[in-house]
């Protein structure tokens, strides 16, 4: 499959229920807002092809990651601790955020690097992702 994951749009939308599970201790209005946002993207892009729908869903998931809510904390903790128990619930969401980031990194690669990736598609590329947050001056 050319080194690409077989996550489908339907699998990705199923992830909204998994996010609801992960946020079970959060205020209900936060969970509803996240689910409504994902459902809105689903409804607005229903008639588009899978590639375009996935792109819109990736955009949405990246925006949700930047919200001040449980989502970025749960994802960061699971990734930092290599918590495989979260794979089923956070996997589809993380896949979409990862591909959003990868899509934008590729846009900024020089042509030489892009050609290298085409010639050697199985070579993995590492990336560092930083999320800004407030830190008191004493901590810095």
> Helicity, in percent?
55-70%
How many domains is the backbone divided into?
1
- Helix/strand class: mainly alpha
The average pLDDT score comes to 77
Query: N- to C-terminal separation?
Result: 46 Å
Task: Output the helix-strand order.
Answer: HHHHHH
Question: Strand portion, in percent?
Answer: under 5%
Computed CA radius of gyration, to the nearest angstrom: 17 Å
Describe the largest sheet.
none
Would you write up a description of this structure?
The chain has 140 residues and is an all-alpha fold. It has one domain. Helices cover 63% and strands 0% of the residues. The chain is built from six helices and no strands. α1 (9-22) packs antiparallel against α2 (28-44) and α1 crosses α5 (87-107). The longest helix has 21 residues, at 87-107. The radius of gyration is 17 Å and the shape is globular. Mean pLDDT is 77; it is low at 1-6.
Quick tags:
globular; disordered N terminus; 140 residues; mainly alpha; single chain
Short description:
By secondary structure, the chain is mostly helical. It is built from six helices and no strands. It has one domain (9-119).
How are the SSEs ordered, and which strands pair?
Elements: H1 9-22, H2 28-44, H3 50-65, H4 70-80, H5 87-107, H6 111-119
